[in-house]
Structures are given as structure tokens and as C-alpha cells.
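Follow-up to my earlier ticket, as requested here are the two runs.
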Amino acid sequence: MKIKEFMKRKDIVISAKRYGIDALGAMAQGLFCSLLIGTIINSVGNQFHIAFLTTPVAVVGDATYTVGGLASAMSGPAMATAIGYALNCPPLVLFSLITVGFAANTLGGAGGPLAVLFIAIIAAECGKAISKETRVDILITPLLTIAVGVFLSWLIAPALGKAAMRVGDIIKWATELQPFLMGIIVSVVVGIALTLPISSAAICAALNLTGLAGGAAVAGCCAQMVGFAIQSFKENGWGGLISQGIGTSMLQMGNIVKNPFIWTGPIVTSAITGPIATCIFKLQMNGAAVSSGMGTCGLVGQIGVYTGWVNDVAAGAKAGITSMDWIGLVLISFVLPAIISPLITALVKKLGLIKDGDMKLD
């Protein structure tokens, strides 16, 4: 009874809703406000040649950072702090999670966001438990929160990163299949990875996923982002359209936990557009491999495909950029996901598996 009273007093609620919906949903917003906003800023700067956005504004050690680079570098702290906010952490715990998030995300590699989710929750609840229980709260609470978080980051974050790369093993295996099957598997798996709290971009970069496989990956990511953006437009309006379509479909993870059937449309769409990309349009990503896992986030995926075309033309590997290239890119990236995913979702709704409000973002 004393333990229950203590937990209630400290607002420590161990439940699937608190951790799988509230914390996960907040983490997605933290990711959007750091990594994804940084990506968008970089894309705008590079495409419109805005010097302030493309010139390094800070140097840390041997690393230089643009404005967008600074925002992206803070993804770990942003996600952890967002989780702490969702868990109603007191100020000293909340601010201590900045260090925890940086450690977990850095040591987690491709599984950084997943590591942040698990580790920040544990560190936050430990911090909440000790908060205001001693006369030196300003010392003890940050020490315990950071100690727990950094220790767990050292202990399990690398393992979570390796677990995330198991997704990469599936992708690597799929790239050896004939284009039709490869297109389906790579598109579906990378698209799912994009929406899950793992880094699809890091996985694609680690696997150097380019060529037809990179094109399939772009298709899968676009199916998720554009699919969710359009099929949830009724509930989320223009703000949701932009935040999911240009930002990240991970914003829907909290809702997916509540009702996995809302994921049906984007996943089935990726299984359709993937082989269309590889077999009909021969869509290749020969730009930076990291762009294969970005989809429509800041239009990085589309810009990567275009820069790949330019590089291939310059190298003599491609005669020129054709109208069919552009038609394929636009159809795969925007048009087909915007049509197919909502149609599939409407069918699932008719079956009574999805109801209005299931995709509402906070």
C-alpha cells in the first residue's frame, strides 16, 4: 500500500498508455522539432542557395554545423525532454534528461530514437522518485537522473542500435532478389522503419542503399508520410498534412499503438509503389544513400534522386533526364500514395476496424 501511495504521489504510472502512447507521441514531436526541422532547413538552404543556411555557424572540435545541422544534432536531447514533459517530470528531472537523451541517441546509432525512448523513460521515473525527497534536491535529483540515463545508455543503447540494424539485414537480403520482390520488401521494410522509433536514414546510410533498392526505399518512405498525411487530413487539417507529409509519419506512432489498423493503408501502399518504382519506372537513388530513408521529409528523398540523375548524366552513365523520370518520381512520391492509401484506409473503416478520430494528432 505504501508503494502504491508513493507512486501516486510521484505521478509514476506504469502503463501502456503512459509509455506507449503519451511518451512515444511526445518523442515524435521532439524528433520533428530537431532532426526533421534541421533537415528541412538544410534542404531549403541548399536548394535556394541561402548563404546563411548553408554556411557553418558553429565549430565544435573538428565538426562544423549549419543552422539546420545544429537543430539536427539536438535530436537526442529534444526527444528525451519531450518524453520527460509527457511524463510530467519536475524541472530538475526534465532538464537533466537533456544529457540522457544525447547519450542514448549517440550510443544507439541507427537505434538511437528507440534507445532514447526506453532509457529516457527509466531515467525520468527514477528522477521523479527521488525528486524533493532530500534536502539537497538540486544536487541529488540531477545526479541520479543523469547517472541512471548515462549508465543505461552505455549498457543497452549499443545493443538497441544493433537490433535496429537487424532491419538492415532484411533490407540487405532483399536487395539480392529480383526487382519485383526486392521492390516490395525494401519498400515495406524501410517505410515501416521510417515510422518506427528507429532511424531509417541511418540504416540506409550504413547499408549504402542506392540504385534500384534506394528507389524502392524512397517509395516506401513516401507511402508512409504522404499516406498518413492525406488519410488523416479530415482529423488534422493542413497542419497535420505538412507535419506528416514534409516532416515525419512517426507522429502517428502513438495512434498506431492504440489502433495498429491505421497503418494498413501506408504499408499496403508501399507494397504497391515499391515494385512500380523498380519494375516500371526504374527509379534509382544515386544521390546520398542517407536520402533513401528520408522520403518526403524536407523533400530530401526527391532531391537525392534528382542529384543522382545529375551525377549520372555528368558521369556519362545516363543520357539525360527524361520526362518519364519526372513522371515516375512524382507518381511514386506523391500521387500514388495520396490516392491508394486513403482508399485502403476507407475500406478498412468500412470493416469497422478504424473509426473517426483514430489518427488525430495532439
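Run two:
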Amino acid sequence: MSPNTQSPAPIDLTAGLPGPEAAEPGGESVVTIKDLSFYYGRFRAVKDVTLAFEARKITALIGPSGCGKSTLLRTLNRMNDLITGTRVEGRVEYHGVDLYGKGVDAVEVRRRIGMVFQKPNPFPKSIYDNVAFGPRINGYKGDMDELVESSLRRAALWDDVKDKLRQSGLALSGGQQQRLCIARAIATSPDVILMDEPCSALDPRSTLQIEELMFELKEQYTILIVTHNMQQAARASDYTVFMNMADDRAGHVVEEGKTLDIFTNPKNQLTEDYVSGRFG
């Protein structure tokens, strides 16, 4: 989880980003954050964060509400750019390239680093068109039927919807809608998938299905998940980052490491208090 000391070869983000094969499990970090601070106007929401996320692993971000977990997650694919008055200090590197560097295409960044939100948000379109939307606007020239099917299969949804692809995605159950959103993210061939509390609106059975899906997806993708569910973090992640608020209300990292260590042998008393339910 510590930042990698070896710098990968330079990548021109304006000409397209590398695919998932660019980093192997146990090898280089896919995303590295260095001395990151994030501001909403004058308010510093996240301060002095340095982390690295390993290829094809699941990392959980945990901590009390308001400690900057979701803000940090959104800095990784520049979603916060869409909010007026925000700014970033420090570096967010993807395969060694600063995502906030001059000339970097934010749209391309979001294609390579996909996102699944807290509440399932299918487009008011057919199941097929939900999955095909991203590839279409990105100029995909291949077999769209094949891409839609493979994306739905990887999201463990194909068997449920293969006979109703022209029906509205809004007609699906909550768990199915969230898997549709995951299929939609997968369809643009990302390298990293960000998940912001993807199970908070789902029942226990649907939550388990999403967790099982995450285990399957990490064979091909690097996954970062924000969750308030300690059991989910313990079950589903390889690494865990615990964040908390400082006296100035800025979110910062208290402790990070392998999930087993964080939950069974934390180094910081504050971490132990949080994972054991004493506060938060």
C-alpha cells in the first residue's frame, strides 16, 4: 500500500491510457496519491493524503461520515472537477502520470477510471442502451451486441435480463439496477472501478451478490470501495484505509494496510476504536 518507488514509462493521456494489462497483481501501483489536499472553496476537505492502490486488489475506504472518503474517491477520476470552486493540491498519478497535469483529458480519465454510485442510477433507457451508451459516445467500432452481452455477463446480470434487453433498466430490482450500473462502467473498458457505498441502498441478499461480483471483477480490475459497513470491508477487501477528521475538520488517513491487520491488529488506538464500534 505504500507508494511505489519505481516510475513507469511516461504515458500520453491525451492519446489514450493503458489497459488493465499495464499492471500485474503484486506489481506496480495503478493509482498513487502524493501529498493530496482537496478544497471546496476555502474549506480543506482532505489534507496531506499519500496512498497507493495495487493492481487487481480491492481497497476499502472506511471512516465516520464527513471524513472525506467520497471526496477522496472522486478526486481519482476528476469527478470533483464538475463542482465549481474546488481545487486540488498534490498529485494523483495513474501509471505514473499526473491526472491533473496540463493537457490531460478529464473525459478520458473517467473512461479509464469508472465509477459506481451509492444509489443505482440507470439511465431512463433500455437495458441494452444503458450498457451501450458509453461505448457509443466513445466511438466504439466493434460488435455492440457482443460487448453488451460480455459486460452483462461480467456483471453477473446476463441470465436475468437476456430475454428483456429492450425493457427499461428502471424496471429492474435495486440489486439488478446496481449490477446494470456496474455493467455500464465495465463496457467502456476501464482499468479501475470506484464504488461509493454501492450497497447502502440494497438488501442483504443483493449486497452479498455485489460483494461476490467484486471478487470476480478484481481478476481484471482494480477496485476502490467506500463503505460504512465494517463487516463488508472485512469480508470484501484486500486492503483497508481508515480516515478520520482532524481538529480543522479536514479528512486525513489515520492508518492503512492489509485488511486482516487493520481489523485484528491495528497499530493506532483510534483505528481499533472505530472498527470495534466504539465511535463513528
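The only thing I checked on run two: Strands lie at 29-40, 43-54, 58-62, 86-94, 97-98, 113-116, 192-196, 222-226, 239-245, 251-258. Let me know what else you need.
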